[in-house]
TrEMBL record:
Species of provenance: Terrybacteria sp. (strain RIFCSPHIGHO2_01_FULL_58_15)
Name the UniProt record assigns to this protein: DUF1937 domain-containing protein
Superkingdom: Bacteria
Length: 136
């Protein structure tokens, strides 16, 4: 299984409604990946949006703690990344995309949450993961 990290906005200035919206968008993509690759187990995912969802309210750890946690998991587990449509509007997502690119890891950009764009992303992930398997 090849793991992709899901990158997108989360905190949105602390607006709880926007945070819930960001979590829902990330979960939509995670569900699409899970549904597509459940049987062949070719691609899996890690997403901080669900891993530490609502910890901005539930825990007292400062934001830098979560940045380091995300980076550590990304570095140890993720071979590629999916950038959600709003990623350019998030300083954290921009940092994560720049970091992935600096490490030479592929970043697949989801154009929109429209069914056709999600399906195109899934096809791209499928092709990427199969190519990795063939090169081994």
């Amino acid at each position: 299984m090849h793991i992709v990290g899901i990158i997108g906005p989360y905190f949105s200035g602390g607006n709880l409604r926007k945070i819930e919206h960001n979590i829902a968008n990330a979960q939509y993509v995670m569900q699409a990946i899970a549904n597509r690759f459940a049987e062949n187990r070719l691609v899996g995912f890690f997403c901080p949006h669900s891993h530490t969802a609502r910890f901005n309210v539930l825990a007292q750890a400062p934001e830098p703690y979560y940045h380091l946690l995300d980076e550590t998991i990304y570095d140890r587990a993720c071979e590629g990344f999916v950038a959600l449509p709003e990623w350019p509007h998030s300083s954290g997502a921009k940092r994560d995309v720049e970091r992935a690119m600096a490490q030479g890891r592929p970043v697949f950009t989801l154009a929109s949450y429209d069914d056709g764009d999600v399906e195109a992303l899934l096809d791209e992930l499928d092709e990427w993961a199969r190519a990795l398997d063939e090169s081994c």
